[in-house]
Predict the structure.
Amino acid sequence: EAQVTQNPRYLITVTGKKLTVTCSQNMNHEYMSWYRQDPGLGLRQIYYSMNVEVTDKGDVPEGYKVSRKEKRNFPLILESPSPNQTSLYFCASSLSGSNQPQHFGDGTRLSIL
Amino acid sequence: AQKVTQAQTEISVVEKEDVTLDCVYETRDTTYYLFWYKQPPSGELVFLIRRNSFDEQNEISGRYSWNFQKSTSSFNFTITASQVVDSAVYFCALSEASGGGADGLTFGKGTHLIIQP
């Protein structure tokens, strides 16, 4: 089954404790990206990647890191999480770019205390 | 910079009514792509439609239809004979082609559609 898998689905943690949200896709997609969804703000893009070793900042990259060492994986790293990063996070992938339909993961709800 | 505006934060209608969700966009590119996504209460995001800037034909898919008008920079979405299962948050999104598809995707803030039985 074609899918984008995020882990964990839920996480409650404390300020400053490094965390990683994993994202993996099995569709051989070139393009992957991360979004955060906040009430009243919709979805905002954090980072995206056109291919292995190629990443670019989206609209809200501050406080986040990503890496694309393999085509299928695109982890989101919060080196020193803060409460304003409490949000619902979505990973997505598409065949070749943002101009293609995005396949989304089920989301990760992060709470930073 | 690209921008997507969904002015309707929430719409509530009674089942079987028709409802239109508005989407207005801003872009400097002549080539761009517009999307609609649905987020039902279960939370997943589901792709509904993609339209490129050179194709202004309206599209109909069952009870769903989309009206793309470049003259008013709008890409509106109409649900005919709404059903309770249509209740969801709907997002409009824009991708500019200046980066060859290598750019980001900008979403509107979403419209929460409530269909009352």
About this structure: Chain A touches chain B through 28 residues (CB under 8 Å). Chain A has a mean pLDDT of 95. The two ends of chain A are 36 Å apart (CA to CA). Chain A has no helices and eleven strands.
